[in-house]
Amino acid sequence: MIKLAFSNLFRRKTRTFLALLGVAIGVAAIIVLVSIVDGFYLEFSDVVSQFQGIQILDKDAPDVVFSVMDESFGKKLESVSNVNIAIPEIWFVPFSVDGKSNEATSFSSISVYGLDVQRSSAANNSGWIFSLERGSTLTGNDPGFVLIGKKIADDYGKFVGSTIELNDKKFRVKGIFSGSSELIESVVAMNLSDARDLSGIGTGKVSSFTLDLLDPGKTEQTVDLVEFRFPDEVQAFSSATYAEQFDSVLGNFRLLVFFVAGISSLVAGIGIVNTILMSIIERRKEIGTLKAVGWTRYEIIKLIVFESLLIGVLGGVFGLALGYLVDYLLLGALGLNFAITLPLILQAFFFALLLSLFAGAYPALRASSLDPVEALRG
């Protein structure tokens, strides 16, 4: 019966191909959209899981690059129990790197991280800067020097001792660091004074503070204590609180993306219904003959459902391949990381099967209800 269903489908190759293409595009849309969200989620999770300490932002800031605080606020933070050192920071996105545009909306944009090097050196944790791979670290006595992430070094051909131009100002590369993610390796770290001049944030202003703790085991208690002491002034984030908020946002966004891709895939379902219905109309006499020689309604339904499922299977396989190809092209063109996991593959493939099954149900019932005498008359 499967062989018969297969041969029936490809009597009208163009029509069947269009139905397969509709399913493939729907599956590919699910794979591409969800895998990019998952890739960003995994990358961000790697970053925040390795962050040490607590980051303090202005109360109303939606993100660290929009946060502006008085540097003197660090003294208040250091008065909180379990806080060892409050390290002032400045975060911003330069408008150009080596004369090339560096748009903040780009997935491959470079960020600048300015920090009080002396305070950071006295801290117990490494904050946002991870393993120094080449060169030496910054000191408080070397303005004009920077550390760059490994991705920047690879993309721009930089090495220890070379120069990098940020917002039309040149800096000397003193070291190259690596991290668990390209997000970290796309950061330029420099002294706080250089970052203040380059960003134009203003005298005595910073973006945020990283709190070095006396007892890292009491991180969450310290987060609660800071927000209790300064409820109208700051928001405090540990790696756990960052991960919790991001889990919620990305989880909802993943569902939304899956829903949108699923809605677009319903068009493929209409294509399957049309393909099978047209096939039934053209094969009325054939179906009438099968019923006349003893085929039951169940066998007719099974034949039509097999035809529909074959479209789902073939379209699903092609869709998975197309989704991977598009993901790979986006990675090369835009630097969009993706994560195609086994659960995602199964979800997308079974979606294609269910879509084809439901799309074939009505044509199958209609074919099974044909009167053999009327069908043989044409």
Q: How many strands?
A: 14
Beta-strand portion reads 15-25%
Total helical segments: 12
Largest sheet geometry: 10 strands, mixed
Rg over alpha carbons: 30 Å
Shape: elongated
The helix content is 55-70%
Could you tell me the mean pLDDT? 84
Order of helices and strands: HHEEHEEEEHEEHEEEHEEHEHHHHH
Distance between the termini: 24 Å
Poorly predicted ranges: none
Walkthrough of the structure:
The protein is α+β, with helices and mostly antiparallel strands. It has helices spanning 2-9, 13-50, 73-78, 117-122, 150-156, 192-199, 219-229, 239-282, 284-292, 297-334, 342-368, 372-377, and strands at residues 54-58, 69-70, 83-92, 96-97, 100-101, 111-115, 131-135, 145-149, 163-166, 169-178, 187-191, 205-206, 208-213, 234-237. The strands form three sheets. Strands 1, 3, 6, 7, 8, 9, 10, 11, 13 and 14 form a ten-stranded mixed sheet that branches. A two-stranded antiparallel ribbon has the order 2-12. The protein has a two-stranded antiparallel ribbon with strand order 4-5. The longest helix is centred in the last third of the chain and has 44 residues, at 239-282. The mean pLDDT is 84.
Topology summary:
Blueprint: H1 2-9, H2 13-50, E1 54-58, E2 69-70, H3 73-78, E3 83-92, E4 96-97, E5 100-101, E6 111-115, H4 117-122, E7 131-135, E8 145-149, H5 150-156, E9 163-166, E10 169-178, E11 187-191, H6 192-199, E12 205-206, E13 208-213, H7 219-229, E14 234-237, H8 239-282, H9 284-292, H10 297-334, H11 342-368, H12 372-377
Parallel strand pairs: 6-11, 8-10
Antiparallel strand pairs: 1-13, 1-14, 2-12, 3-6, 3-13, 4-5, 7-10, 8-11, 9-10
